[in-house]
Amino acid sequence: MDQEKIELVRIFLAAPVEISAGGVVIDRGQVVVVQHLRGDWVMPKGHLEAGESPEEAAIREVKEETNLAAGVLAKIGRTEYDFRAAGEDGWRHKVVHWFLMQVNGNREDLRAVREEGMAQALWMGIDEACEKLTFDADRDILRKGWLIFHEQG
């Protein structure tokens, strides 16, 4: 391994790790997607709070970002990526635990919660959502969640 690659590995191994959780919320053949104020289209997710499980965090984050009460049906999997936080010099490594979720309340309660950094929150068909989502990893998790949902019947 050349010196440049060794240095990159060292930097990434030293990066702080952030643990988050999110939900693939499905209802009536549609899924929830949200647009951050910065423009990215994603599914609702966020950091775990102290003492919180990933499942609890996913439920809370869906409510905070979309105003929807939702419950977990199944664990889908996780995504991992490295990013530079705004205003910081170093890299961070993020692990996101994803859950398949269904609405427990009224689907019409969906709204973008601006205080949480959301510009829009929409119900979309899976094909439209896959086109809209900014990141490939999110599209992969959405498709995986969709398959699990339909396998459960």
Brief summary of the model shown:
The chain has 153 residues and is of the alpha+beta class.
* Head-to-tail CA distance between termini: 49 Å
Shape: globular
What's the helical proportion of residues?
25-40%
Report the CATH topology name: Nucleoside Triphosphate Pyrophosphohydrolase
The helix/strand series, from N terminus to C terminus, equals HEEEEHEEEHH
**Class from helix and strand fractions:** alpha+beta
Count structural domains. 1
Number of helices: 4
The CATH superfamily label reads: Nucleoside Triphosphate Pyrophosphohydrolase
The CATH architecture category equals Alpha-Beta Complex
Low-confidence stretches: none
Radius of gyration equals 16 Å
| Percent strand | 35-45%
- In terms of quaternary structure, the protein is single chain
Number of strands: 7
Largest sheet: 7 strands, mixed
